[in-house]
Each structure stands twice: as structure tokens, then as C-alpha cells.
Specification:
Elements (H helix, E strand, L loop, with lengths): L8 H27 L5 H6 L14 H17 L7 H25 L3 H21 L1 H5 L6 H31 L9 H23 L2 H18 L4 H24 L2 H4 L3
Helix pairs in contact: 1-3, 1-4, 3-7, 4-5, 5-7, 7-8, 7-9, 8-9, 8-10, 9-10
Length: 265
Amino acid sequence: MSSIVRPTPSQMTRRLIVLGAAVFAVVVAQAQMLLGWGQTPGEFAADSDATLRVAGYAFSIWGLIYLGLLVYAVRQALPQTGESDLIRRLGWPSVAAFIGIGLWIVASAFDWETGTVVLIFGSLLVLLIPLLLNARTIRALGRGERDRWMTVWPLALLAGWLTVAAPVNLLTVATGNGALPAALPPLGWALAAVVAVAVVALLVTWRLRLTAYSIPIAWGLLGVFVAEQERNPALGFSALAAALVMLGGTLVIVFQLRPGVARVT
């Protein structure tokens, strides 16, 4: 059994910055809602959702995501929490992602459309790429290890939701500005987005072996089904099929593969 590696002063500084960034993300979102400055994220999303809609209830997943981010941030900030490889490697990327989603609330509130696209894709990439680069370490985590549940899971939940929210954000802005490329009709772009999200979800899940990444994506696709099943049945039921295929594939990937396959070096 390895001994706990206590954080150095510089590492504690990084941890406190992670905590501050997480608090910033949560406080900005709550302040916008309570004080009512600008438009809400739901109002921003509904402003030009003629191409691809997500049911409003789906955005309630932010409550779970914010809770997970605070659990991660508080736990890693505690001096008695050992300095693991994952805490060290994911620290600064999580800071960038947390600041990004906090600034996205501001950008959406004041309808800075291009800013929302840059911020949401930037927050996704700055978090998802380090997760993929550390996939081997993540796969090797034991089922009961705290880094699995209190470091990787919260960050994977956020990355998963951003994976489905980013293309919806892009299509919303492009639709509102009449900037959808003419190569496909709006329905074609919406279907392409649904398929792309499901494919990315399966590929990332294959690498990480985590249901935490797939859960919010399935939730978002089901939100598309609820929103579109009457207005656009072809799109709605395609989103439902994509969610079911993705969930089935995730179960096979995560639970049916032998542990040795996931941990091969």
C-alpha cells in the first residue's frame, strides 16, 4: 500500500485556484438566476432553436454537475488529500473549464453569441483532451478509489454535457444569424449533430470506460426527443434511437469488457 503524497505549497496554490474557479462557475450561474441580469441560459437557447431544440427540463442536469464540481474542488483542496497523478494532471484543465462555463453564463446573458460558441467549445476541449490523454490511468482506477468518484466522475459529467450542448449552441447561433451552410437543409444539420454526438460519446467511452461521460449525453439526446417528437418526428425519434444505441453501447463497453482489457499496458 503506497503512502499518501502530501501536496507541496505550489500544489496547494493550484488546488485553491481550482476551488476558486469552481466557486466562480457556480456563483455566476446562481447570481444570474437570482438577480435576473440578462437572459437565462434557457432563454438564450430558445431564441433561435428552429434547427435543433432541447427540452427545457434537460438543463436541470446543471444542478448535479455543479454539485459534482464542488465535491471535486473541495476534496482536492483538502491538505489531507494526497497529490495523485490525476489531481495534478487535471487541475489546471479543470480551472480553464470552470472559468469557461462561468464566462459562458455571462456571454449568454448579454447575447454575445460568438463568445458563447468559443467558450463552450473551448471549455469542452480543454477538459476532454486531458481526460483522453490520461485514459490509461483512468481505466486503471479501482471501483472504490476516491479519484474515480470524486475527481474523474465530476469532470466527466461536465465534459459529457458540454459534448451535447456545444453543437446545440453552435446550431442555435448559426440559425439565428442565417449562417447555416447551404450544403445541407436545417434538418440535415440537426441529424448530423445528433449522429456526431452519439459517435463521439461511444468513442470517448471506449477510451475512458466511464458511464459518467455518457449519462449527460443520453439525457441531452432524450431532451431533443421530447422537444422535437411533435414538431419534427424524424429528428426526435432519431435522437431517441441515438440515445438508446449509445446507452446500449456504453453498457457493453463499461460492464462487459474484462478488466484486463481495460488495464492492459
